Amino acid sequence: MGDRSGHPHPPSRAAGRNLPLVVVLTALYMVAEVAGGLVSGSLALLADAGHMLSDVAALGLSVFALWIARRPPTATRTYGYHRVEILAALVNGAALVAIAGWVLVEAARRLAEPPPVGGAVVLAVATGGLAVNLLGMALLAAGRNESLNVRGAWLHLAADALGSVAVMVSGALVWGLGWEFFSPPARAYIVSDGFTLNRLDVVSGKTVTLERFDGSPVAGRVTRHYRGRIFNFVSARIAPTDGGADFRVAMNVPRVPTSEAWSLAGSWTAGQPSNARWSETHAGNTAPPDAVLTNGVELMTVRGREAYPAAILAVAADGSYRVLVSTRDFGRLYPHGVPAGQIAERSRRQSIERSRELARVKRELVARHQARGLNEGAAMLRAHDDMEELGYLPKSPRIVATPLREPPPGMRVFDIPGEYFRVGLFQDIAAAIAAPDSEVDTSTGTYLKYYDDELGLRLKAWRDAGNDRFAVRTGGKLYLLEVRRFDRR
Q1: Domain assignment present for 8
Q2: Is residue 468 assigned to a domain?
Q3: In 3D, which of 136, 126, 127, 139 has the Cα closest to residue 158?
Q4: 3-state class of 288 per DSSP?
Q5: How confident is the model at residue 184 (pLDDT cuts 50, 70, 90)?
Q6: Is 479 within a domain?
Q7: Which range, 12-16, 258-262, 298-302, 443-447, is most confident?
Q8: Which distant-in-sequence residues (6+ apart) come within 8 Å of 46 by Cβ?
Q9: What gap in Å lies between CA 159 and CA 105, rounded to an integer?
Q10: What are the pLDDT digits (tens) for 418-464?
Q11: CA pair distance 285, 313, nearest whole angstrom
Q12: One domain for residues 98 and 171
């Protein structure tokens, strides 16, 4: 018989029998996503975990609605409790809209300040989330056409599955490419900014301001910053002079498609300020001068926030240090002191000491040769050769020619006409043949001088293949040519 009441039947038990299992699976993986988000630092996973929390609530509401809807009609509720299921579906749909709005707001905030993220963890956890959502959809597939409430839960899981795919894509980008290269810029308004030239007393640590430079290129304007960085870098070089100092400051500000390069350069002397002004040009070399190492004490900076140092240290030869001046961040960034490894990494002591030793030896050798009557240019060339022989400089390759009767087995022989040598071609080979069994400076570093013809190209190809020995036939005579290399002692 037909249903004479005209009221719909309550949903069958089969329609939602798997819904409680889906609730349990979703709740368990929500906990996993929270853990994964905390470990990886991924806001996407934490946001998705919050989404799954709402899923648990919505699916639980669906379970409750199905249970209520199955209760039989009463005298006062002739329609039964079927309206509860419809209301639950409405709440479920409204929750989807609210969650979508919240995700949009969170996404905008994350774009402004993208945090560092462990991409591999994000990818793994999001893949598991996708599997849970697909399993839940499969469990509810049979009942979604019988119950509006089950259909709403199924659509909720489908939306979650798409969200998991999006998180997987973002995790793959972070893991494979590094999200920082794709972070869109946030904007910030710089109220004020200024630079000062200061003199620092290494003994007392006191500073004296020598000159102020107000109104840097970023002051009073909107600029972009990436991951909290307003500057790509800021660096300065200050070199002492008689009665003053030469300085050069480089500032690089992120811009799209190319960054802005600014410089501030000038010379300061007592009683005469530089009056330097910022200009949109490259500053050139801003590496610290060798003067940072004086009387065995090396001055160096340690990394701080942004592009600025957290402190200036006076470091002794044994690695111990004194903090001469520091920012408020120094104690927070280095609560247990500056690690010895970081000091060793930033130290230029060895390179400065070697540079000074080379300069001293060169001066002495040049003076010695000038005292023997050589002019300055010839004395410098002779001093360079002496420094190679003494091991201060890498010794350039030498070439040796040894007369032969017959070429050794497998030896490549190159026939060079005598006129090549007479017109100045293959000078290194000609010099070696002119002084048999003697080392001749190639004078061209690690390669020989070649003539750009078919013979020269064949000889160059043989040498480029790593062969340091070859034979030359010229003027009816045969020679074994050998290139000898030397390393710095």
Answers
A1: no
A2: yes
A3: 136
A4: coil
A5: very low
A6: yes
A7: 298-302
A8: 33, 34, 37, 38
A9: 18
A10: 888 887 778 888 889 999 999 887 654 444 455 557 888 888 888 88
A11: 22
A12: yes
* Arithmetic mean of pLDDT over the chain: 77
- pLDDT digit string, tens, across residues 335-364: 999 999 999 999 999 999 999 999 999 999
Q: In terms of Cα–Cα distance, which of 64, 79, 83, 68 is closest to 153?
A: 64
Q: ∠ CA(134), CA(21), CA(11), 5° rounding?
A: 95
Do 224 and 299 sit in the same domain of this protein? yes
CB count in 10 Å sphere of residue 345:
8
Query: CA dihedral in degrees (249, 255, 258, 259; nearest 10)?
Result: 10
Extract the tokens encoding 161.
Answer: 């599955």
263 lies in the same domain as 175 = no
pTM for the predicted model, two decimal places: 0.51
In this structure, the answer to whether residues 132 and 148 fall within a common structural domain is yes
pLDDT at 84 over 80: no
In a domain, 464, yes or no: yes
Contact 81, 9 (CB under 8 A): no
**Structural domains counted in the chain:** 4
Same domain, 336 and 214: yes
Is there a single domain that holds both residue 251 and residue 302? yes
Q: Is 386 left (phi over 0), alpha (psi -120 to 50) or beta?
A: alpha
The boundaries of the domain holding residue 20 are: 13-182
Closest-CA residue to 451 (of 430, 437, 436): 430
What SS3 state is found at 251? strand
Structure-block tokens of residue 46: 């934490």
Q: Are residues 442 and 322 in the same domain?
A: no
Phi first, then psi: what are they for 469, rounded to 5°?
A: -130, 135
Q: Is 402 helix (H, G, I), strand (E, B) or coil?
A: strand
